[in-house]
Amino acid sequence: xxxxxxxxxxxxxxxxxxxxxxxxxxxxxxxxxxxxxxxxxxxxxxxxxxxxxxxxxxxxxxxxxxxxxxxxxxxxxxxxxxxxxxxxxxxxxxxxxxxxxxxxxxxxxxxxxxxxxxxxxxxxxxxxxxxxxxxxxxxxxxxxxxxxxxxxxxxxxxxxxxxxxxxxxxxxxxxxxxxxxxxxxxxxxxxxxxxxxxxxxxxxxxxxxxxxxxxxxxxxxxxxxxxxxxxxxxxxxxxxxxxxxxxxxxxxxxxxxxxxxxxxxxxxxx
Length: 270
Description:
Layout (H helix, E strand, L loop, with lengths): L1 H5 L2 H24 L8 E3 L5 E3 L19 H34 L4 H11 L7 H13 E3 L7 H14 L2 H16 L2 H8 L4 H37 L7 E3 L5 E3 L4 H7 L1 H6 L2
Parallel strand pairs: 3-4
Antiparallel strand pairs: 1-2, 4-5
């Protein structure tokens, strides 16, 4: 599969682009301590003053927002949070779901079906709505107040985005493992004395790996979609700062938060 991937020039280009953004984002945190370039006023050669927002130019490739923050710099700073959080949440979903699926696949069919029927409701849970109600009061705080520590807010948000997806992933992978266990070549290996760990490692894993890769990509996209929905609802990853007068800002400047923060600007100045 890796050989097929590297032959796809568009996919490789997109991957290199994202990796470059993450490297620049980490470099900005290391070198500039995560500071964002901000220019509120500009003076031209005639001494004329102009105020932010500034249109895209050689000095600001993507322009600035109303506060004078460089939009390109904001995007670079937020890359590590968006991509990093998305990858970590997706990995934990798959990892926990796979461990539980391996365990549940050993159960007999009636017991497995009982568990599956009990947790089947998780497949229709509106993740965005549940996440919004659970995270709104944890992640949103007024400027000047002392919120919960950053790592607690991020940890709680990631836990919510992980646990509600685990049941669906668990029973999807459990059914796939059960199907593979009923294949003739696996039953033959079992008759010859192969134990469950051996069957998993030698006979199940080679067939399950492509499914895991596709599932990982699907879950990564789903995580980003939920974060975008939360961003539009002004619940940003890591926290939402509410200023006097109704202005809001993102703690991490991650992409979905920027999308939600500038959504009114998109609607008023498309």
